[in-house]
Amino acid sequence: MNTTGYRRPSDGQRRIRAHLLIHANDDTSGEANIAVIRSPGGNWVLPGGPVVAIPAKRSLLEHVRNQTGLEVAESALTWVGVFEAADDPACLVLVWETGVEHTALATHEDCQWADHGGLPRPTRDVAVFDTDDSSTHDIAHLIPLHHP
Fold it and tell me: Would you say which domain of life the source belongs to (predicted)?
C-alpha cells in the first residue's frame, strides 16, 4: 500500500507521465490563464505525456515543444508534485509549472489558453491524489491518466 491507500502494481512497475501547468503571466482577467491541449480523446488537458527519456524534465519539455510550440527552459520549471490516479495505481504523474507571456503561445485548434474551472469535466470522476499529502486537486481533471 502507498500513502493514498491504493495498491501498487503486482510487478512493481510504474508508468510515468509528466505534465506542465503553464500560466499566462500577463493575464489579469483570470479567465484564460492556463495552456491546455486537446487529447486524442477530445478532452482539454495539460501539455505533457509519457516519460520516454531520463531525466523526466527532458521528456516533458520535448512533449511541451511538440504540443504547444513553446521552448521552455528547465530552469523555468517549478516543481508541483507527484500524483497518483485512484483508478490506476500503476501510473504516476509528475507535474511542474511555469509562466509565460500570453502571446508566447501560438494557439490553434488543439492548443489554447483556458480557464481551467470552465473546461468541461470528464464524463466520469477522475481522482488524482498528491502522493505527499493525499489531497485531491482542482487541476485533477486536466491530467490525462492513460497513455495514448
Answer: Bacteria
